[in-house]
Amino acid sequence: MELVLIGTGHVAHVLGKEWKAKGHRITQVWGRNPERTAALASLLDARPVVALHTLSVTADAYIIAVADVAVAAVAAALPPVQGLVLHTAGTVSLNTLAAPGRQYGVIWPIKMIRKSMDRLGVCTVVVDGNTPETLARVTVLARELSAQVTEAGDEQRAKMHLMAAMVSNFTNHLYDLANQYGTAENIDLRLFQPLIEATAAGIAAQQPADQQAGPAFRGNYDTLERHRALLQSYPELLRVYDTLTNSILTRFGHEKLP
Prior knowledge:
By secondary structure, the chain is an alpha/beta fold. It is built from 9 helices and 8 strands.
């Protein structure tokens, strides 16, 4: 397929490299910054474009990989293209891409993507389309990125995006908080790498609640108070600790912290 990438950020870089490796031809790359556009186009053996209205109209698909707030404006500025018009956002409505006679859809990888990644790797890709035919074509393109492809409309995709924030962004923030504490107390976060990996792997075999452990799960208030004493010099971290501890306590039938 001939593909046009619209955007020069992390997602555009990685999806472009992935599709190119799978034998698709990236014909053009559009971006607001001429230098970044030229660099990505060179990487993908494509032609850089700085004006949307000058894009070729005969490509098979146009992938809009820009900031969520810019998707609508970019989609509205496209020339009357013949191919699929897709965006890669989890929370932007499918119909943001609507235009008379246009086939449009969504192809959203559930993954933290950085342009330094050589390939996308294992992930779930969520797809949608404005017609069954469009959805089928989007799915074909998505399966070039991942074997795990699932369909979801706007509402379901937004809920999936929320869950992605909880299981990835929130947990990473907790790693960061633990690392800040460890740095201050001369404890290396890497000591806990096996625990982190085992916890993440565990939910593939059982429900998260079934592998919950720790003093809050057991209702061990003495240990919880010892933890809290260690955090008296870290008031912001103590606030987070108390919030999560109370959540676990009530989830498993215990009283909140006194």
